[in-house]
Amino acid sequence: MTDWFILTASIGLSVLLIIIFTFKGLKRLDRSACGQIPWLIPITLLGCLTGVLVAGGMHQDFQMVNIITLIMIFLCGLLLAMAYIDFKTCWAPLETQLCLSVCLGIISWSCISPTPLEVLTSGLAGLAALGLAHGLWLLQRRLNTKMIPPVDLMSILAPLALFGANGISLAFYGILFVIFIAVKVVLYKRSFPFVGSLRTVFGRRDYFPALSVLLPLMIVFFIARAWLPVNALEVIYS
Question: Mean pLDDT across the chain, nearest whole number?
Answer without folding.
Answer: 80
